[in-house]
Amino acid sequence: MLRKYLAGTLLLMLSLQLSGRRSAAQDDEPHIRVVVNMVQLNVAVTDKNGRYITSLRPEDFTVVEDGIHEKIATFAEGDEPTRSLLDIPLPGSSIASLSAPEAAANALVPEHAPAGPNTFASEVNGAKVFVLFDTSNYMYRGFVFAQDAISDFVRSLDTADQIAFYSYSRDLSRAAILTSDRPKLLRAVRSTVVGDDAALYNALLLTLKDAARYTGRRVVVVFSNGPDNASVVPPEDVAELAQSSGISVYMISTHQARLEPVSTAVFERMTAATGGKAYFSKTWRDEKRAFESIRDDLAHLYSLSYYPQPNPNRGWRAIKVRVAGESVKHYQIRTRNGYRPEPSRFSDARPEALNRPPAADPGSDCCQQRH
């Protein structure tokens, strides 16, 4: 009897010890997290003649991601204030119980975002416009006319819009960071000088990374006078970053770039994939008209966002936006055609540490979820 008791006790102790080791080993194993952004869409809707369709409502839009119907979380038309359509915590608010997918459980505030109850409105009302100006040696001719066109564009934007002005040749110059100070921006435009070779895609990549730190409507407007001859990053990578970050890219180029088939094709593909437009201007008057067209586009864009439903696809996710109504067959819809979620993240943190929201990733949209 004593032997059986001692044997049973020994087996129990051994079992507990092995169980504890397994638990410790599990805690030490890396955890995989996939972070999915709140997806922001800039949507232009026009008729067959190119006229903007206005006064559409959220229920007029259908958003499908990889064949999955999504609920629109926020909505705005043009310069109107952004409305929240779901009972979710928006940036600057406290985490609460949610009726939206658990996706919204980790709404984050970017590093730059001010604290307080007005954070969401201040972040999404108006557009964040990043102007990227080619000051390479391609720009010897027509430099002053290009400065005039950009200056007029800055003056014409809505007062709610914030603007950053960057210039580039071989290197990027952040002449004026995102601001509402129009005189400061105009001084930055006038202070630019012609530089060296053109590293357009290098500069555009850095500009997109800056724009991705912000929320709401974000667009990059590029004025380029010629092909890229100094970049080390491929345009395909730059385009994918713009798509995945939800940033529309507009490109205005002179006829010099039009004469280069490769640049023309790249500009057209990149702008179409992000929901923007490409313009090829023969004269300074065409440049001014191109900037006016972009200004009109910004004033008529619909801003939609949604938290993706659970989706096992860790690669490229296709987005389709449709508009309901009898005249829908005559409508032209322009927006980005997809995005790629952030890659899996490996962490040796304990499970309880994973419950704490991570620092905002400057390469992603503001609000994130974990599947």
What does this molecule look like?
By secondary structure, this protein is α+β, with helices and mostly antiparallel strands. It has 2 domains: 33-78 and 83-118 and 302-370, no CATH class; 125-299, von Willebrand factor, type A domain (Rossmann fold, 3-Layer(aba) Sandwich). The protein contains 10 helices and 20 strands. It has helices spanning 2-28, 119-124, 143-156, 182-190, 200-211, 235-245, 255-258, 261-274, 284-300, 351-354; strands at 31-33, 35-37, 39-46, 61-65, 68-70, 72-77, 83-84, 106-107, 127-134, 162-168, 172-179, 217-224, 248-254, 278-281, 302-306, 317-323, 332-334, 338-339, 345-347, 367-370. The strands form 5 sheets. A 6-stranded mixed sheet has the order 11-10-9-12-13-14, with helices on both faces. Helix 3 links the parallel strand 9 and strand 10. The termini are far apart.
Q: Helical proportion?
A: 25-40%
CATH homologous superfamily of the largest domain?
von Willebrand factor, type A domain
How much strand? 25-35%
Helices and strands: which structural class?
alpha+beta
Instruction: Give the oligomeric state.
Output: single chain
Distance between the termini: 54 Å
Instruction: Tell me the name of the CATH class of the largest domain.
Output: Alpha Beta
The run of helices and strands is HEEEEEEEEHEHEEHHEHEHHEHEEEEEHE
Shape: globular
Largest sheet, spatial ordering of strands = 11-10-9-12-13-14
What is the number of domains? 2
Q: What's the architecture of the largest domain, going by CATH?
A: 3-Layer(aba) Sandwich
Question: Might you state the CATH topology name of the largest domain?
Answer: Rossmann fold
